[in-house]
Amino acid sequence: MGVNTAYLAAIPSPPQGVWYVGPVALRAYAICIIAGIVVAVWWGNKRFVARGGRPGRVTDIAVFAVPFGIIGGRLYHVITDHQLYFGPGRNPWNALAIWNGGLGIWGAIALGAVGAWLGCRYYKVPLSAFADSVAPGIVTAQAIGRLGNWFNQELFGGPTSLPWGLEVFVRTPGGVAGAVPADGVCEFPTDYVKATPEVLCGTFQPTFLYELLWNLLVAAVIVAADRRYRLGGGRVFGLYVAGYTLGRVWIEMLRIDPANTFLGVRINVFTSVVVFLGAVVFLVLRRHAPREDPALVAGPENPRGKPTDPTAVPADEPADAAGSVAATARRAGEPDTDATDRAGSAGSAEDASGGRS
Fold first, then answer.
1. DSSP annotation string for 82-111
2. What residue segments make up the domains of the chain, in order of their start?
3. What percentage of the chain carries pLDDT values higher than 90?
4. Distance (Å, rounded) from C-alpha 103 to C-alpha 325?
5. pTM higher than the cut 0.90
6. What is the DSSP letter of 174?
7. Is 146 annotated as a binding residue?
8. 293: nearest Cα among 119, 88, 126
């Protein structure tokens, strides 16, 4: 009876992670990643404006940060799981197939930070204020992204009889009849669909759900800490990194998907520990950092020194030949008689029209 209750209460897996609209493939993983980015940018904009920043500036900087982050995430994944793409029987071009899943958060944050730094330099705003503004949105975006793993039926933990265990079903091309693989591995290509009749591979730890909930908890904690202590100097971002990596250690150790290891421990566990310690050191060193001056957070309206009015003529580029003569006369210390005549003509026209326009 207990086993049946656990089965009835288990979390079901979606029958597929890809839908086709004609020749176009709509992939749940990609949709979740995009949705997460939208949420992170929207929330980051609101927080940045509250700190004194200009509306839309986070969106501007995201144009730099997001592509860098996606490239960095993919590079980390391909490097740490290179056996999936290189070697006998492997297709190296699949390393570019990001739509099939595979983004390493460490590479995404590292290279995304480089892109953000470039964007902040371009718009002349403090990187620390930008990072503190977007931190809760980033970890929330990670939570949304984990839903993509649920649709793909991947990255789950070991077998379990817990009531919230994840049901994993056999998936086959086109959903034709299938059976549990002989090696017992129940992860399938993302474009496969649940076999008919359905075959249950097993019930496993829903590590995607654990990380989703943990990330939302981290977001709530760092927002509360920021409101209570008015954190600045990148400390909100530091708290995010420390909080996320703390959870990633124990969640990573529950997973059973193939991964490279060091001393019998998954590489991502080592990475989490190292990054966590680095975040703690950063927070200690920056414990007295004040919140940035809103004037600095706002930055210049036109960071490249361009005129606000696109039709305006720069002072050193007169609009016509007469203006050029007038400018030369002014530089030589001579009166600008043409300007006087034009002013007089304008005054006569205004008198004639009664001053209406």
1. GGGTSSTT--GGGGG-GGG----HHHHHHH
2. 2-298, 321-353
3. 69
4. 62
5. no
6. G
7. yes
8. 126
